[in-house]
Design a protein that fits this description.
It contains 6 helices and no strands. The chain has one domain (3-134). The relative contact order is 0.16. α2 crosses α3 (54-69). The two termini are 27 Å apart. The radius of gyration is 15 Å and the shape is globular. By secondary structure, the chain is mainly alpha-helical.
């Protein structure tokens, strides 16, 4: 899907769902899916083999957030309206309902419950080096 069409579909989805989450939250989840597929070496697979379950995706979300935002991840998530891992499940299921993602019959939003504590998962990380911010 081209970027302009994706942007319009996400904006439409946000309007239908009351703009609970920031637009960037949807893009982050999509990026986290690709990132997680790559980490699990599923990026070259097709169909059912390519599928991620909720816990796999949450691990990928945490890893990507650590890499991208470091100790600021909780603040970024809060600004996007994400306060608990169930919010990531809500984002995923909203995108499934909008036809942006696919789900299995066995997938449940509860799969995202208690994945990790957003407040503590990023503690003890070093701040992002200034040179990284210039890239």
């Amino acid at each position: 899907m081209d970027e302009a069409r994706l942007e319009e579909r996400i904006r439409s989805l946000r309007r239908r769902t009351g703009r609970r989450y920031a637009e960037m939250a949807y893009y982050f989840v999509l990026e986290a899916i690709d990132y997680t597929l790559y980490l699990l070496a599923k990026d070259q697979l097709r169909g059912e083999a390519r599928h991620l379950d909720g816990q796999e995706l949450l691990e990928g979300i945490r890893a990507l957030a650590r890499e991208e935002f470091g100790p600021l991840a909780p603040f970024v998530f809060e600004a996007w309206g994400i306060r608990r891992t169930e919010d990531f499940g809500e984002l995923v299921f909203q995108m499934c309902d909008a036809g942006l993602l696919k789900k299995r019959d066995s997938d449940r939003i509860e799969d995202f419950r208690d994945g990790f504590d957003i407040e503590t998962a990023f503690r003890g990380l070093d701040p992002i080096p200034a040179r990284s911010l210039q890239d």
